[in-house]
Amino acid sequence: MKIVILGAAESGVGAALLAQAKGHEVFVSDQSPIQPLYKEKLAAAGIRFEEGTHTLEEVLKADEVIKSPGIPEKAPVIQALREQRIPVISEIEFAGRYTKARHICITGTNGKTTTTLLTYHLLKEAGYSVGLAGNVGFSLAEQVMEDRHEFYVIELSSFQLDDTYAFQPWIGVLLNISPDHLDRYNYSLEQYAQAKLRITRSMDSSSWFIYNADDAVIQQEFQAVFCEASQLPFSRHHRPDYHLAAYYTAADRLYTNLAPGLATGGREISVAASPLIGQHNRQNMMAAILCARVAGLSDEQIEQGLGTFRNADHRLQLVAEIDGVHYINDSKATNVEAAWYALDGIHQPIVWIAGGTDKGNDYTSLVPLAQHRVEALICLGVDNEKLKTAFGGAIDHLEETQSMADAVRRAAGLARSGDVVLLSPCCASFDLFKNYEDRGRQFVAAVQGLTEENK
């Protein structure tokens, strides 16, 4: 077949390399400049590519197109393909054709990366042959070329799920659904939810579906989905209205049962060794532990793995303790729900650094938490008026700045021993920073600067 790849970053280049390895004619097209690393990979493999444009005459010769998840449906090149009825699939769909490995696939609005990394860590520490792929930044297609693993743990965004059809997760996990990326889904929460629930599309009776029974949107939208997989709902508390596969019996004890309708088979697992902070991470842990149990890990293997896990940067990451004040980097909290989890999970008094590019946020749900937990708010953004209006009546002390170094210095001046300085922006980063990683790194650097000053 002639395969055209749209987008030449991690997923696109991985798909191109796999397609060529399987004997297809391959052409790669990217409307933006291609990064040197990926250009070198394509050139070394002798794969034709173009950058800075999509040549429609060439693209429309395709028998099948593999699309980058970043390209929206409304893009002219996609519309042209739809008009010609040329199949458009995702890298994940394509890679799944060429491996018999078992896929553990994790999606949700928040917590995907933490849950994916924790699940991968648990299996790897237990000695399993496991790969890490998807939205965490590693191409599944490129790994499938060697296909050395029995399992792949894959983080899937809704964008990656949109163009899957026959791809079959062995375990599918849905953590939560809250408004995000609605511009890609006609500003419809229902359409966004159904994109997430697409993870169940090809599951059968040999599959497992792990989902959050506490999430109201999942409860509502899942009713319309036909799912043959064995269902493993989890909740933070025991609930009589569900046969739960996992729930907490104490702050550091988790009950699990892979046959939740039966009284037998239940086991309690200690999560006391886990370094993860916050109520949302308690949910993430339940999902990861259920994945590990389905995969056959023992309680001892799970408990040992929890204790050695270290989360990705910028996700409730403890940066330092200076004069009794803890500095926590949660720069990945780019929406209201993620910031809510951070404020809810920290029980010490908080000096909160927030702000950035507002995505139509409704801060109402944060106001009661802020009133009780936050001693001071430092607004870090080009335009802070909406934050000031939302929290001005709930937080006694409010300041503005447009510099991370200044924000951290001011926070340090306000915080007392026992307090937490929390960067949980609740907003996108693009007004003052390149991305959330840049924002988080600047926070870490500013905190490290305080450490140097205190020496």
Structure description:
With 455 residues, the chain is an alpha/beta fold. It has 3 domains: 2-86, Rossmann fold (3-Layer(aba) Sandwich); 93-308, Mur-like, catalytic domain (UDP-N-acetylmuramoyl-L-alanine:D-glutamate ligase, 3-Layer(aba) Sandwich); 317-453, Protein-Tyrosine Phosphatase, Chain A (Alpha-Beta Complex), CATH 3.90.190.20. 35% of the residues lie in helices and 21% in strands. The chain has 17 helices and 20 strands. The strands form 4 sheets. It has a 6-stranded parallel beta sheet with strand order 7-8-6-9-10-11, covered by helices on one side. Strand 2 (25-30), helix 2 and strand 3 (48-51) form a beta-alpha-beta unit. Helix 1 (10-21) runs parallel beside helix 7. It is globular, with a radius of gyration of 23 Å. The protein starts with a strand and ends with a helix. The model has no long low-confidence stretch (mean pLDDT 94). InterPro entries: Folylpolyglutamate_synth_CS, Mur-like_cat_sf, Mur_ligase_C, Mur_ligase_C_dom_sf, Mur_ligase_cen, MurD. Pathway: Cell wall biogenesis; peptidoglycan biosynthesis. It comes from Hymenobacter algoricola. Residues 314-426 form the Mur ligase C-terminal domain. Belongs to the MurCDEF family.
